[in-house]
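Is this the right way to post structure tokens for a design question? Let me know if I should format differently. Anyway, here goes:
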């Protein structure tokens, strides 16, 4: 099973580097996942990420500025994994994140698996991420079952840290 990690980015070299560094710590074997960073028309050059020797396969795609959703779709069209994991460029993941998300997607059919977001710093995150994390923290205090599997309405899903089977993603018609 191959996992494809799709990271859309726009003009954010430093945050995407932190995300990539967190992927260096994964418990999932490095030959079990590929990383695709999709530059959504950044005015700055982020190609420096390809100069670093990461232990996993890393591809940088560039497209004209069309937004993160189109960047995610572009990444998936170039991916080869059975499981797609979407990570925003300002999210760092725990060492077991990819393994846990992939397991959740293979355990049951037609599953969207989401990771828990923990804010790393206010200055590194987008306004949307700060609001999402604040909402998640409120929900966490109201419901301590966040560590286990729970069913949520699709409108509560976001693509900051989300996994889905490739076949299911294309059956849904992408994003």
């Amino acid at each position: 099973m191959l996992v494809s990690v799709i990271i859309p980015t726009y003009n954010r070299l430093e945050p995407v580097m932190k995300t990539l560094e967190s992927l260096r710590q994964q418990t999932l074997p490095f030959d079990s996942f590929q990383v695709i960073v999709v530059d959504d028309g950044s005015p700055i050059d982020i190609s420096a990420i390809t100069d670093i020797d990461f232990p996993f396969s890393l591809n940088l795609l560039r497209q004209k500025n069309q937004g993160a959703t189109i960047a995610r779709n572009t990444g998936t069209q170039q991916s080869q994994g059975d499981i797609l994991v979407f990570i925003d460029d300002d999210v760092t993941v725990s060492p077991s994140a990819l393994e846990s998300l992939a397991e959740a997607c293979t355990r049951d059919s037609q599953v969207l698996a989401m990771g828990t977001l923990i804010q790393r710093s206010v200055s590194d995150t987008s306004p949307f991420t700060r609001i999402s994390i604040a909402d998640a923290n409120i929900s966490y205090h109201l419901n301590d079952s966040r560590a286990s599997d729970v069913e949520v309405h699709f409108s509560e899903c976001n693509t900051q840290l989300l996994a889905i089977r490739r076949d299911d993603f294309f059956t849904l018609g992408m994003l």
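Format looks fine. Someone answered above. Worth noting: DSSP finds five helices and six strands in the chain. The chain has a mean pLDDT of 82.
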